Amino acid sequence: MVFAEKMRRELEKSDPDVFVGMLEGGFTFDMIFAGEKCGFRRCRDVVQDEESGKIYTEFFCFPQNGKKDKLQQALSFSVECKVRDLGEKQSVFTEVENLQCWKSDKKEIYYSHVASRAGAQIVETGANTFLHNEVVILTPENETVPLDEFDFEKNKLFMLGLYGGEYKIGVRE
Predict the structure, then answer these.
(1) How remote is the C-alpha of 148 from its chain's centroid?
(2) By C-alpha distance, which of 66, 163, 143, 73 is closest to 109?
(3) Model's pTM, two decimal places?
(4) How far is CA 22 from the centre of its chain?
(5) How many other CB atoms are found less than 10 A from the CB of residue 37?
(6) Residues near 8 by beta carbon (within 8 Å), at least 6 away in sequence
(7) Are 167 and 142 in contact (CB under 8 A)?
(8) What would the pLDDT profile of 45-75 be if each residue is shown by its tens digit?
């Protein structure tokens, strides 16, 4: 069975507590899920309703099987949940619902890679979500572009430039 399809099926059967564990797992983590070693990257957190503390969170999941094409096998998924106090940097997650799954594309692979690098910087601020920070990319032309606005198609050699140091990843509160 194809990895993405298997993960989708298993996620759909999962108890909400599994997702709370993922939400509390940080920005980048590995875990055994559905009998497979999987890599997870948290990609974004968006407030949907400040009054109730409801947020939307996306993840990128891929097999940690050592194969060269492991990222192309990936699955993206999102959940909605409630956060006890949106003002706190350390969020406490409850009431996970509304799972959505889809096959990842190249843009999501790149997006997740940038988000995971930014996540490492956010952890240093004491936060455990993207809620209080904006992820930005500093281009070789010294432009600062929010991750959500960055055009990966226009910047076809982005990943090479990122590894080569021409692009920098940053966060701003």
Answers:
(1) 12
(2) 73
(3) 0.91
(4) 11
(5) 12
(6) 75, 77, 101
(7) no
(8) 999 999 999 999 999 999 998 888 899 999 9
